[in-house]
Amino acid sequence: MWELIQNSIYAGILISIAIGIIGSLIVINKASSITGSIAHGSFGGVGIGMFFGINILFSTSIFTIFLAILLSIVTIKFKHRQDSLISVIWALGMSIGIIFVSLTPGYHSDLMSYLFGNILLIENQDLLMMFGVDILLLISIILLYNRFLLMSYDKEFLFLRGINANLLYTYFLILTALTIVMSVRAIGIILILALFTIPPIIAEKFTKKFYSMMILSAILSAIFITSGILISANYDISPTPVIVMISSLALFLSMLKK
User: Which of 13, 23, 46, 195 could be disulfide-bonded to 19 (CB atoms 3.0-4.6 Å)?
Assistant: First the structure.
């Protein structure tokens, strides 16, 4: 059994580190809708990769980074219409993916893994990308910890310090995009937003410092993902819905805490 799930466990740990960092930033910046737009819009990159026969991780990375920059411009320049524009970009990305997939001849057996995820099918190539993105996230949060905090709570102070808060926010969205790409085959486009936000929401209730929130969020993510993998492997069911159900149950239980 270990041979079947070992890559999945490694992937779960690597994804948990990313969720601890990016998920916490998403929650305190109230950027769930933007994250959902990037996640669902990333399907455009999947469709483009399939149509042109190029590496799907590469095409999805380029496409999601483009979406992140576009969403950054929208949220900065068009604040009064950002909700509507975020929804439009969400739908546009998915529409591009659907069109390219429908134009691609043949049957695409791995398409469902991008939509709903299957962490049991993770390959070494996916693990390498996860490891690389985690290193980038760890370096970024170590070097920019205070700036990310100010971006989240007091952008005006950043401007007074001569720091470009908009550029920092764009970088945060690009990191979010890369984290989504590294997780998409394991978690799936449809359910990725839930797993990115539930552990940080729980962690926020039990911590007072942001770094504590990130650490606890990563630990909770690892517990949820590992539990889901073990249950799905034993009962031969899809792992991602199990992981989300466990996470959701934990969230509802945490809400009992005043």
Answer: 23
Q: Map tokens 């959701």 to a residue.
A: 248
Q: Of the candidates 116, 179, 115, 130, which has an alpha carbon nearest to the alpha carbon of residue 9?
A: 130
What pTM does this model have? Answer: 0.93
What the chain holds in terms of domains, given with CATH numbers, is 2-254 (1.10.3470.10)
Q: Assess contact for 247 and 194: CB atoms under 8 A.
A: yes
- Report the Cα 172 to chain-centroid distance in Å: 12
Give the long-range contacts of residues 222-225, CB within 8 A, separation 24 or more.
222/12, 222/13, 222/16, 224/195, 224/198, 224/199, 224/250, 225/12, 225/15, 225/16, 225/119, 225/195
Residue with tokens 């990130």: 214
